[in-house]
Design brief:
The protein has about 250 residues and is of the alpha+beta class. About 20% of the residues lie in helices and about 35% in strands. The protein is built from two helices and 14 strands; from the N terminus they run H-E-E-E-E-E-E-E-E-E-E-E-E-E-E-H. The strands form three sheets. Strands 1, 2, 3, 5, 7, 8 and 9 form a seven-stranded mixed sheet that branches. Strands 4-6-14-13-12 form a five-stranded antiparallel sheet, with no helix packed on it. It has a two-stranded antiparallel ribbon with strand order 10-11.
Length: about 250
């Protein structure tokens, strides 16, 4: 004889499933901030050449500007211009973050076949992520870069991270996309003439280089969260087993 279905019995199971989902999606991330970025050129031999832009002002390099909204000059995350420019973008919450580049082209074409990217975290002037991609490519696959010294930040060359991921405690950030386009390239998906100048976020009559990068931030659940999730999964399994037995009677 089949037993009548009971919502009262199902309620704690549904509650456990909901708790599992919440814990998985809200695993606590430790403090993590994006505090620097640089873009530079890499020659056909895979070597850093020395040209580029970065988000740290006052070091002799042209400024690199980041936006949170494509083509929106009101969404720059750089605080200040010239020597005072810097970034401090909170990445503590798990999720996917995309930023868009603007850099002054200076009237010159990109001289090398590849573009490199450094990302710096938590105020440390050594990159946590270093990658390179073919220049002027719409959907390239980023590759880790660690071939000698590269990048410009605080007027010094720094070693490449040779990694697409960076971890801080229980939080990991992973680069999933990176593009860089010449201002004359018609394939540039977010190329807007002249949003920035060499050291400021106002037009100067010269079109910009453009591009974007995307990172994914994930947090590892605490031991207590794992225990609660495993308990919820066990309850779901027990309920399923009991229901199968009742259905067989």
């Amino acid at each position: 004889m089949k037993t009548a279905f009971s919502f009262a019995r199902l309620a704690p199971v549904l509650a456990s499933a909901a708790v599992c989902g919440i814990l998985m999606s809200t695993a606590s991330a430790e403090t993590l901030s994006l505090t620097g970025a640089s873009v530079y050129d890499i020659n056909s031999a895979g070597n850093y050449v020395g040209n580029g832009w970065d988000t740290t002002g006052g070091n002799g390099a042209a400024n690199l500007y980041l936006l949170t909204a494509q083509n929106d000059a009101g969404s720059f995350i750089n605080s200040g211009n010239g020597a005072a420019t810097s970034i401090h973008q909170d990445l503590s919450s798990p999720g996917t973050y995309t930023y868009y580049f603007r850099a002054d082209g200076g009237g010159f074409n990109w001289p090398t076949p590849s573009a490199g990217l450094n990302l710096f975290f938590n105020g440390v002037n050594v990159p946590g992520i270093s990658a390179f991609v073919p220049f002027n490519t719409v959907s390239p696959t980023p590759a880790a870069y660690g071939n000698g010294g590269l990048g410009i930040i605080n007027a010094d060359e720094v070693p490449g991270a040779n990694s697409l991921s960076f971890s801080s405690g229980k939080t990991t950030v992973t680069l999933s996309n990176f593009t860089w386009f010449d201002y004359r390239n018609p394939a540039a998906p977010n190329a807007v003439p002249d949003l920035v100048n060499v050291f400021g976020n106002t037009p100067n009559g010269l079109n910009d280089y453009s591009g974007s990068f995307t990172v994914r931030v994930a947090a590892v659940p605490e031991p207590e969260q794992w225990a609660m999730m495993l308990g919820g999964i066990s309850l779901l399994a027990a309920f399923g087993k009991r229901r199968r037995k009742l259905a067989a009677k």
